[in-house]
Amino acid sequence: MSATLPVTLTVNGETLTRLVEPRETLADFLRRDLGLTGTHAGCEMGVCGACLVMLDGLPVHACLTFAVQAAGTEIATVEGLTESTVIADLQRAFHERNALQCGFCTPGMLIAAQGLLARLPLPSRAEIRDALSGNYCRCTGYEAIVDAIETVARRRAAGETAPRFAEEPA
Amino acid sequence: MNAPLGSLDRPNSYIGRAVTRPNAKRLLAGRGRYVTDLVLPRMLHAAFLRSPYAHARIVSIDAEAARAMPGVRLVATGADLARLCTPWVGTLDHFKGMKSAPQLPLPVEEVLWSGQAVVAVVADSRAQAEDAAEAVLVEFEELPVVADIDTAREPDADRAAAGIEDNLCFRSRLDTGGIDALFAGAAHVVEEEFHFGRHTAVTLEPRAILADWDASEGKLTVHHATQTPYQFQDLYSRHYGIPEASVRVIAPDIGGSFGMKLHVYHEDMAVVGLSMLCRRPVKYVADRMESFVSDIHARDHRVRARMAVDAEGTILAMDVDDVTAIGAFSTYPRTSAVEGNQVIRLMGAPYRFRNYRAELAVVFQNKVQTSQYRAVGHPVACAVTERLVDLAAARAGLDPATMREKNLIPDDAYPCESPTGYKFEALSHQASLIRLKALMDYDALRAEQAALRTRGIHRGIGIASFVEISNPSPAFYGIGGARISAQDGATLSVTPSGEVRCLISVTEQGQGTETIIGQIVADQFGVAREKVRVITGDTEITPHGGATWACRGAGIGGETALQAARRLRDNVLALAATILQARPGDLDLRDGLVVDALSGAERVSLAEVARIAYFRSDTLPPDARAQLSITHHYAPQGYPFAFTNGIQGCHVELDVDTGLVKVLKHWVVEDCGRIINPLLVDEQVRGGVVQGLGAAFFEECRYDDNGQLTNGSLADYLVPMACEMPDIVVGHIETPTADTALGAKGCGEAGTAAASAAALNAVNDAMAPLGASIAQIPMTPERLLKSLGKI
Ligand code: FES
Ligand code: FES
Question: Chain A partners of B664 at a C-beta cutoff of 8 Å?
């Protein structure tokens, strides 16, 4: 055990400074210190993808990143991406297609999908499946997730934008 | 949709409609509230020191140093918790002769598997608790490890636990008689020895529990990631001696369950005692490594089976010997014998033959306990049966589909009974097969396969019929003495604004329970779906009920909701009739309005009826009955189970040089009776199929000879990922059960039941021209190369 260190970083648009233990992961920091429990932990070894967050715009595993390593970066979690509406179309498509059951993998899936579509705007189904190869889902069997991402890719290519997801009718 | 529904299928009925899940939006926004997320004031964290040995005696425990570590509040041993908690035994009375050693939260003298929790540490943070657990010194004396199922059953074998007289937990035998003679006289006999690997549920959210003992009130509140809050309310109450009404179990959002989260786990029982000892909330979340060595495992069967067939390919008989290894204890309270029991009873279930013999041995060994996990026993029975059917077809010179056409129970033969005693009300095997062949374009696939073979491409086609057990009656657990309810209860109320609250005992783990209950209530009561709020998963709020397991949510929970909604509707119409001075029978409730039943003309709104009932009862006549809340219970009657059926097809390509199998496509036709929401049913089926394909190709808990799990991490234990899984085509036949007004049966296990069997047949089909075969799952590349004689 060692003394805590101050880190300053931006989370969901807000710059903040906190004292953290050097061994504290970014996942624990977000969940425990900031109460951002939308980021989940499923394996804590980088294989399940439940803990993905955007770090400077790219998906990273919050379980493999120490909080101190995130100093000076911009982190976006599912909560922030929901508020800023950038993933509203993905959320809507997941909802319509029932691409989630227990929802534990879902924040990570949304972030992986957002990362994929930023890199490859119109992926094939095989490319989508490939991009999800680090995201474990025990419930859905994946097909609905692939369908939802495919739909969003097409909608984005057609220039459609989605309103705030949370306020749409159920 | 092809089932007649009478009043249920008006054009605008919610029943049968693919509506989205209102409660999924919260999860999509990252606002789920899982037990893992919960924080309570003064909350402490538990960690456990685990046994490094598969079998050992505890010589001494020295916790002095650990107690002095920063943040540590309590170090508790088995003896400490045994003073609070009474032992439990995982047997059921109707499994005659079954035995198992008594269990306690933490062991007092003997550890029985590698990874068993031995000492608990409670500290201000989880990290501090883990640090201190490492500082606890336990001296173990190693004992002989029981691992092999055959040596375990020898007369002088070492025992897996001191508290049992031998390693046979349970045995069972079924025999319709004359089997040896039938086999001796059969034109063809096919036989095989099958091996089914141990696998485990690997829910993405691990097990999690937060126990909060309030000594001032004598009240225990447990936030528990479980499918069955009422079962745990009963167990915590009885084993800790707390009055039942003072125990509250809350199951909030749950990150996957699949049967794994309805068993008693030692750590979970311990956490309740730790909270009582600390008089503070104590939380424990299993990490992934702990999950692999403490969540229940499943399967682990060796089945020797044979099938007798006449010269025309008619199946005459099956003869089965199943040995399954379950760990050192039978799991509580559902036991570890149900799976084996279902294996031997489900064998051959889709087929017409009447002659059957089976022997089951359930064996103790020093590994993690096994118990019910999605599709309990079905994948084993299905794979054995379907592989033998394929072998028999080949021997009789029939195509596998033709073989099934010939032998499946005809759709007009119901009701009927299986040779193992299961009573089938109405199934649709033949229609399902016809539908599957059409969906697959079976004949074209066979032609393509033949053409590709000439080019050295090895594709295989496998099909597998199945029967699934759903909606169990009290004959399942109640009869065996387990306090596991077969009924469900719902409380329905009209709010003063004319909305509806439904508190129901079935629970939600993402399959859409709350959504379908909302559909049923809205439909049968007569309001828009948005006006119905469904609340589940809290023993303090909903009536007692069995909750969600064995695919009973829609069939039993749904019927409960239907009957409750109809009763509440009658109450509303009776009150409206009083207000309107009309006859209740002339009124109807539609879309939130009381209308004239014949003309549909609005008479008064539901909101107005509620307003009068709650705020202006002075305007009602003295004999008016303003009962706008009702509680209703429903238990299955009639058939002991609602059996469902279906068939699956699997198309694979085998790389004979690497042993890698690519699943090209998978098809399912299933008949779950009335479909309430096709969007949800299809995804239940797909998710189930992928779990079955995981078992077929990847998943296996591997142990060494010393009883050590050698692949207990998510990097080493392979689970199916998106890139390895195919698209899955799902088709439906609907044969509603006549036992209920709703007619729904279950659908959650259908996918898992037959996916591995279809895959096994497909891979064997691909290998057949090469003279190779396999009878083991998972079918790893290494095993396939061995079968092919390449290594
Ligand atoms: S928790 Fe980070 S990848 Fe699994
Ligand atoms: S929805 Fe449960 S793990 Fe993906």
Answer: none
